[in-house]
Design goal:
The complex is a heterodimer of chains A (about 120) and B (about 110). Chain A is mainly β and about 120 residues long. Chain A is about 0% helix and about 55% strand. In chain A, the strands form two sheets. In chain A, strands 2, 4, 5, 6, 9, 10 and 11 form a seven-stranded mixed β-sheet that branches. In chain A, strands 1-3-8-7 form a four-stranded antiparallel β-sheet, with no helix packed on it. In chain A, strand 5 and strand 6 (about 55-60) form a beta hairpin. The radius of gyration of chain A is 13 Å and the shape is globular. The model of chain A has no long low-confidence stretch (mean pLDDT about 95). With about 110 residues, chain B is an all-beta fold. Chain B is about 0% helix and about 55% strand. Chain B has strands at about 5, 10-15, 20-25, 30-35, 45-50, 55-60, 60-65, 70-75, 85-90, 100, 105-110. In chain B, a hairpin with a 6-residue loop joins strand 4 (about 30-35) and strand 5 (about 45-50). The mean pLDDT of chain B is about 95. The chains are: A mainly beta (about 120), B mainly beta (about 110). The interface of A and B includes residues 6, 42, 101, 106 and 110 of A.
């Protein structure tokens, strides 16, 4: 149980375009999902908390207008990188929890974004 | 976000040896999680800890929630080649957002 699926696994886009990444909880409902970003050989940095039916909560320093998050249902959250630039190239990983606060996070397999 | 420091940054060990790594925070946490990440994949949960002093095992892995609530430890006994990967701790003081440690890269030499 507790399977989180991300799509696409890899995407290459040109500078200035937008890219949408989907995160789905396959066998459970998730009112809250979390988006992380990871640069090569570095840790996971929390970008934002995605809340079903309400606005996402962004971590300090993360531009909400650049990283648009939509959590329209209990099983789907999307992250859209708008007007992508090469410095946005990174590994984006979503996670969700089964149950209440303090429950462990279960992660998707990540999306490798390359902006050319 | 919060900064969690892991030590050591990397380890090179012989197959069969035991491994110890730790994670420290400047803040008190009420939940600690340990994950393993293989290249190009998402982290996989190993152990979850919820109480200061708690000691929990998962096969050859044992993790402890430090008494000060500012640290946690992970031990791997009798390492095998498939233990290779990056190990991350993650902590939360709200139970909602989790912040990740800097990671420990483990290499097991057959």
């Amino acid at each position: 149980g507790a399977v989180v699926s991300q799509h696409p696994s890899r995407v290459i886009c040109k500078s200035g375009t937008s890219v949408k990444i989907e995160c789905r909880s396959l066998d459970f409902q998730a009112t809250t999902m979390f988006w992380y970003r990871q640069f090569p050989k570095q840790s996971l940095m929390l970008m934002a908390t995605s809340n079903e039916g309400s606005k996402a909560t962004y971590e300090q320093g993360v531009e909400k207008d650049k990283f648009l998050i939509n959590h329209a249902s209990l099983t789907l959250s999307t992250l859209t990188v708008t007007s992508a630039h090469p410095e946005d190239s990174s590994f984006y990983i979503c996670s969700a929890r089964v149950g209440q606060n303090n429950s462990p996070l279960h992660f998707g397999n990540g999306t490798r974004l390359t902006v050319t | 976000g919060q900064q969690l420091n892991q030590s050591p940054q990397s380890m090179f060990i012989q197959e069969g040896e035991d491994v110890s790594m730790n994670c420290t925070s400047s803040s008190i946490f009420n939940t600690w999680l340990w994950y393993k990440q293989d290249p190009g994949e998402g982290p996989v949960l190993l152990i979850a800890l919820y109480k200061a002093g708690e000691l929990t095992s998962n096969g050859r892995l044992t993790a402890q929630f430090g008494i000060t609530r500012k640290d946690s430890f992970l031990n791997i006994s009798a390492s095998i080649p498939s233990d290779v990967g990056i190990y991350f701790c993650a902590g939360s003081n709200t139970g909602n957002q989790f912040y990740f440690g800097t990671g420990t890269s483990l290499t097991v030499i057959p």
